Amino acid sequence: MKIIVSHDVDHLNVSEHLLRDAIIPKQIIRKHIELFGGKISLKEYALRWRELIEGKMQNIKELHAFNKANGIPATWFFGTANGTGLSYPHEHINPFVEFLMKEGAGVELHGIRHDDKTSMLAEKKRLEEKKKMPVNGIRMHYLKKNEHTLNLLAECGYRFDSSVYEFRSPYKVGKMWEFPVHMMDGYVIEKPRPWQSKNLRQCMEITKARIEKGVKENISFFVIDFHDRYFSPKFQTWMEWYMQTVEYLKTSGFEFTDYISAMEELEKQAPIIVEK
Ligand SMILES: [Zn+2]
């Protein structure tokens, strides 16, 4: 089992949300529930107010530096349209796309529309103009999809999608590879609530059990999704969870890879079908 690490960029700045969506008031409610529920410290609570004042909601360079130091070839999913709390103007991702491309990291699309091919193709094209290279893959924001979405994505020319939360190895949908997500920060730390419901020790127990399950069930590529916003002392448990998970995987001898290399491996393994 090899590990694929991916990051969804849902937010860049506080200002992009003002008058556009309810993200900021929701965050204020959430931090009070977490403070009074004993899940975050007073320091963390205070730091979250600072996020509002400073305005910065992304931690792309910080997280990339950590990945680089740990030899993790992560893939980053950026949006080029708006919806469900993803409200940044697509031009604002340009310097980050340029930075990550220069660093050799994977840059792919965080999809918004899941049911209209014209809009879906327009989102893809917008990122291709920024990358000056083809977009290979996609993850839908909030993993949103209906029964037609995967086929539509394959028709849009994606080589891979990683939007299905299922415990299985990658499989083909038409010509496209589907890489199911096996572990997502929010599902580990918050579930069953929409705010932090577990402490770090409980999170790590769940994490180790999921990794063990992956090995037992012979999962070929185990996909982890971590949002860069949480790579900050403002979200202590989340940041520690990611760092400890990476440490655990490294000390357990797992190899990290990326979607493109994984597809090459899968294509090699795939049985050659000879038509008669
Ligand atoms: Zn998202």
What does this structure look like?
The protein has 276 residues and is of the alpha/beta class. The chain has a single domain (2-13, 57-269), classed as Glycoside hydrolase/deacetylase (TIM Barrel). It is 42% helix and 14% strand. The chain is built from ten helices and ten strands. Strands 1, 2, 3, 4, 5, 6, 7, 8, 9 and 10 form a ten-stranded mixed β-sheet that branches. Strand 6 (171-173) and strand 7 (176-178) form a beta hairpin. The two termini are 34 Å apart. The model has no long low-confidence stretch (mean pLDDT 95). Zinc ion binds at residues 8, 10, 86, 110, 141-142.
Overall geometry comes to globular
For the residues shown, what is the average pLDDT?
95
The termini sit apart by 34 Å
Looking at CATH, the homologous superfamily is Glycoside hydrolase/deacetylase
The distinct bound ligands, ions and cofactors come out as:
zinc ion
Note the main sheet: 10 strands, mixed
Low confidence ranges: none
Classify the helix fraction into a percent range: 40-55%
CATH class: Alpha Beta
